[in-house]
Design goal:
Layout lengths: L4 H11 L4 E6 L6 E7 L8 H11 L10 E7 L3
Parallel strand pairs: 2-3
Antiparallel strand pairs: 1-2
């Protein structure tokens, strides 16, 4: 079962309301996405901690409904 880009964006925005979120379907198959997430909530965190916050927002869907997510995270400058 594939996951829609809008659903990924919704989950991330619910967890990180002030985030800028850009989702791109890389293969057109609803399985392989890239996500760019920028939020002040990431300030002072390591990249691993930032990615964990995004994966937590996806509520266990990574590896199931969502097969692959190329993730870029940052805090605004």
């Amino acid at each position: 079962m594939a996951m829609a880009a809008a659903e990924i964006e919704k989950l991330i925005r619910e967890a990180l309301p002030d985030a800028e979120v850009v989702i791109e379907d890389l293969a057109g198959d609803g399985d392989h996405y890239s996500a760019v997430v920028k939020t002040p909530a990431f300030a002072g965190l390591t990249r691993v901690q930032q990615h964990k916050m995004v994966y937590d927002a996806l509520q266990g869907r990574m590896g199931g409904e969502l097969h692959a997510l190329a993730l870029q995270t940052s805090a605004p400058k």
